[in-house]
Amino acid sequence: MALRITEECINCDVCEPQCPNTAIYMGEEIYEIDPSLCTECVGHFDEPQCQVICPVECIIIDVNHTESPEQLQAKYEQIIAEA
Questions:
Q1: Hey, how many other C-beta atoms are within 10 angstroms of the C-beta on 71?
Q2: How far apart are CA 22 and CA 3, in angstroms?
Q3: Are 37 and 72 in contact, with CB atoms under 8 Å apart?
Q4: Which of 74, 82, 83 is closest to 39 using CA atoms?
Q5: DSSP state, 21?
Q6: CATH no. for 3-82
Q7: Angstrom distance (rounded) from CA 34 to CA 20
Q8: Among residues of the chain, what percentage have pLDDT more than 70?
Q9: Cα–Cα distance between 49 and 10 in angstroms, integer?
């Protein structure tokens, strides 16, 4: 599953540099996560680093983009192959 940032985001800028897939970017009002790049840090870390670092805990599972651990691993492998 990809993650998403809720409107509780305070634009503190700490999540964006933590994303190993550069899936986090500044949207029109708050930071957003590109679900095509988000692997929940599978392949890099044991847990999503943006969630770990977020001071307001506004990064949650995006139920509109559900993926199994195997699908996340495959997405990670595709991303690094294209890099």
A1: 13
A2: 13
A3: no
A4: 74
A5: T
A6: 3.30.70.20
A7: 13
A8: 100
A9: 17
Give the Cα separation of 23 and 73 in Å (integer).
15
Question: What is the residue whose two structure tokens read 């139920």?
Answer: 63
Q: What are phi and psi of 9, to 5 degrees?
A: -55, 135
**Helix runs in 1-83, H state only:** 49-53, 69-82
- CB neighbours (10 Å) of residue 3? 22
For residues 38 and 30, the answer to whether their CB atoms sit within 8 Å is no
Question: b/e per residue, 21-55, with b = 16+ CB within 10 A?
Answer: bebbeeeeeebebebebbbbbbbeeeebbbbeebe
Reading the block at residue 30, the tokens are 């708050």
Q: Which residues pair with 33 in a beta bridge?
A: 24
pLDDT at 1: 76
Residue 51 has pLDDT above 90, yes or no: yes
Cα-Cα-Cα-Cα dihedral sign, residues 46, 47, 49, 54: negative
